[in-house]
Amino acid sequence: MICPFCRHDDSRVVDSRPVVDGTEIRRRRECPKCGQRFSTQEVALLNIIKRSGATEPFSREKVLVGVRKACQGRPVNEDDLVLLAQRVEETLRGTGQAEIEAQEVGMAILAPLRELDEVAYLRYASVYRNFASLEDFEGEIALLRALPSNATQATPASQVRTPDTSTKSPATLNQKTGK
Ligand SMILES: [Zn+2]
Asked: What is the four-CA torsion angle of 71, 72, 75, 79, rounded to 10 degrees?
C-alpha cells in the first residue's frame, strides 16, 4: 500500500482489528520512509452485475425493499425480512464469487421467501419471473401444492423452477432486480 503522505511504495501493518460485525478489517499502517501512520479497511467484495453491465456493491437494503413490497399486508414481520436478507447475502457470499449477476440475487430470494410466505412468494415470482398469464400462476401454484414448503428447505432453488423459465429471456427475468 502506497503511503498517502510521501507516496513511498511500501508500508507496514502495525495493527489489525475487525470492525462492524466482523465483515471488515481495519489496519493501521506505518510508512517506513516518513513515519506517518494511516488506516486502511478491507471488505470482502460482493458486487452485483446489473443488466446494463454496470456493477454495484451488494445491498441488503435493496433486497429488503423488494421483498417488503411483496409482503405488504402479509403476516410477516420486519425481523423475518431482515433475517431473509441476511440469508440471501450468506447464500451469495457462499458461492465464493466476487461478482454476481442481478438475476442470481432474485433466484437466491425465491427459496427463503417461499418458506416465509407463499402469497408473498407468488407476488415476487410473478414480477421477477415476468408472469404473463393466468397459466403462469396456475403452473406455479400447482408446483407449490406438489412441493410443500418444508420440503424446499433441502431443495436448491434451481430445482424448484418451473420448466417454462427456459423460454424467457434473461432480460425479462432480470426485471425485478436489474435496476
Ligand atoms: Zn510516507
From this structure: 60
Per-residue model confidence as pLDDT tens digits over 55-102: 999 999 999 999 999 999 999 999 999 999 999 999 999 998 999 999
* Cα 39 to averaged position of ligand 1 atoms, centre (Å): 13
Distance CA 173, CA 102 (A): 10
User: Ligand 1 centre from 16 Cα, in Å?
Assistant: 19
Nearest to 159 by CA among 169, 147, 170: 147
Q: Which residues surround ligand 1, an ion (CB under 5 A)?
A: 3, 5-6, 8, 31, 33-34
37 Cα–ligand 1 center, Å: 8
Q: 28: CA distance to ligand 1 center in Å?
A: 14
Cell of residue 162, nine digits: 418451473
Whether residue 159 contacts residue 143, with contact meaning beta carbons closer than 8 Å, is answered with no
Residue 47, strand partner residues: 57, 99
Q: How many residues does the chain have?
A: 179
pLDDT tens per residue, range 158-178: 444 444 444 444 444 444 444
| Residue 37 to residue 11: CA distance in whole angstroms | 9
Decide: pTM greater than 0.70. Answer: no
